Amino acid sequence: MKNIIVLLMLSCFVSPLAQGQTKREKKAQKEKINAENYEKMKSLIGEKTFEFRGDWANTISGQRINIMNSANLLQINKDSANIYLAYFGTLQPGSAAMNRSGTISFKGLVKNYKTSLNKKKQSIRVTFDTTGKKDPFQFSMTIFGNGNTIVNVNSIVRTAIKYQGYTKALQAKN
Description:
- This protein has helices at 2-19, 23-46, and strands at 49-59, 64-66, 73-77, 80-86, 103-109, 111-118, 123-131, 136-144, 148-155, 161-169.
- Strands 1, 2, 3, 4, 5, 6, 7, 8, 9 and 10 form a 10-stranded antiparallel sheet that branches.
- It has 2 helices and 10 strands; from the N terminus they run H-H-E-E-E-E-E-E-E-E-E-E.
- The chain is elongated, with a radius of gyration of 23 Å.
């Protein structure tokens, strides 16, 4: 009787293990999901209708600032952009940007919009320029298949800054 109980208990533990996925199956399933997400993101970026929401700002001096609770966004809708990102950096003395608030803001047409794909890393690189009334900016976005995104912003009148966040489909206006 004791042997039967031991065998029953052992079968309870071994049975689920035998039915579980192998490492190879798990890896194949993960690669399939990543490939599907990458294809969806490529389509989204190709349509030029997406938005980036920033969670973190990284300054050139090494500070990492949580910006999750702020209105930080970069929207691309066809050939135009709506950008409002908190800025933590240094402005060039005497520049026209000195009179502005601590943001990178732009609303208008983008220039030199380019995309390139990195199939190995399953990432998409988007670059474009904006020229507002006072500040010219160069944007470089690295967007991964899962939506995680890194945005680098360069300007001739401000120090560079990097943002980390998430890219998704552009929300329809109500």
